[in-house]
Design brief:
mainly alpha; 14 helices; flat
């Protein structure tokens, strides 16, 4: 009976609607495969979550298959975006794939909320939940790589922008090619050392500040000697935001357990790994090498040519690199990559244009 109903719906739908439903079917099937592929790379709870998401996409695909009825036609290829997701799921990091899927699910949620295209209310709700599940899974990966990743990406961007601006400014002043190269390599080395040292100090200082906020591990061992009648332990809980009554009750209970020799972590001491901040040495090394990698790109053309041709090639190479790094930041942020890529390109070229204009001005004056 349901099949006959779907045939009727399929016959009454316009060709444009049928084409959209076929496209939706292809998308859902592609997302099913992506979740299955990602699940194969994980274990435990993450694997189970991804498999359940895959089953949900399979249900969605069946909805479109039923809706099309006899008009399902030849299987369509999924969009380029879905193909890219599949490629990332197979060859690149788990976080990259999840970040792109997050963007995809959020788009599907907005589309389902604004378009009456045959999707059920339950499907739109599913997509909203999927986006939140993926956001949570991706956050785990982002936290584990945020420190080093931040140093690497910003190091590369700084190298690209600062050395492009430096090289263009000097080259526009009509100096010799050897002077441009000397300036470029000096900027590379100085900037890389500065970035590396700055990242080490920044990350190290962050970790020290957080460590200073952690309870002292040795304090728990001294608590059995507290005077029960002068229970100053309650002051600790009050300092952490509890009311006076709550703190007194909590402190009394804690001391009772201590004196009965129960094992209790009264001060809630725990070892903090500060995973989200990262290692100061990894951040420093990543920043140094990625700054140097970005900074050498605008120099390379001047090794084989000079003048206007070298300037144009340097600008093109740096532009491509800025689009890439900006897009990567967008992907890992769970946002559409193109606006971030174009923003990064605008920033880099803006700095280059300003210094190029200054170089022309001073070169002409000289």
């Amino acid at each position: 009976m349901a099949h006959n109903s779907s045939v009727t719906i399929g016959k009454s739908a316009s060709e444009k609607q049928l084409q959209q439903w076929r496209k939706n079917l292809a998308e859902e099937r592609a997302e099913y495969k992506i979740y299955k592929r990602l699940a194969e790379t994980r274990t435990g709870e993450e694997r189970e979550i991804l498999l359940e998401l895959a089953e949900a996409e399979k249900r969605h695909a069946e909805h479109w298959r039923t809706l099309l009825g006899d008009n399902v036609g030849k299987p369509l290829h999924p969009s380029l975006r879905s193909l890219l997701l599949g490629f990332l799921a197979r060859w690149f990091g788990f976080v990259f794939a999840l970040a792109l899927i997050q963007v995809s699910e959020e788009r599907a949620t907005k589309r389902g909320a604004t378009e009456n295209n045959g999707a059920t209310a339950a499907m739109a709700a599913d997509e909203a939940v999927h986006a939140e599940v993926i956001r949570s899974l991706a956050t785990r990966g982002r936290n584990s790589m945020s420190g080093t990743f931040r140093a690497a990406v910003f190091g590369a961007n700084d190298g690209l922008v600062s050395n492009l601006a430096l090289v263009l400014g000097v080259a526009a002043a009509n100096v010799s090619n050897s002077t441009v190269l000397l300036t470029g390599f000096s900027g590379l080395l100085a900037g890389a050392l500065s970035m590396g040292a700055g990242e080490w100090v920044s990350v190290r200082s962050q970790r020290e500040l957080l460590d200073a906020s952690m309870p002292d591990e040795s304090s728990n061992e001294l608590l059995p000697n507290l005077d029960v009648n002068e229970n100053e332990l309650s002051l600790v809980y009050r300092a952490r935001g509890m009311s006076e009554q709550e703190a007194d009750a909590r402190a009394s209970l804690a001391l009772e357990k201590i004196h009965s020799q129960e094992s209790i972590n009264v001060l809630q001491v725990h070892h903090a790994s500060h995973e989200e901040i990262g290692s100061p040495w990894r951040a420093a090394i990543s920043s140094f090498f990625f700054f140097a990698t970005g900074a050498i790109i605008p120099i390379l053309p001047f090794l084989v040519t000079s003048g206007t041709l070298a300037i144009v090639i340097a600008a093109v190479f740096v532009g491509i690199a800025l689009l890439f790094t900006g897009g990567v930041v967008g992907i890992l942020s769970g946002k559409p990559p193109m606006p971030r890529a174009l923003r990064q390109l605008a920033i880099g070229y803006g700095a280059g244009i300003v210094t190029f204009a200054l170089g022309l001005l001073f070169g002409t004056t000289a």
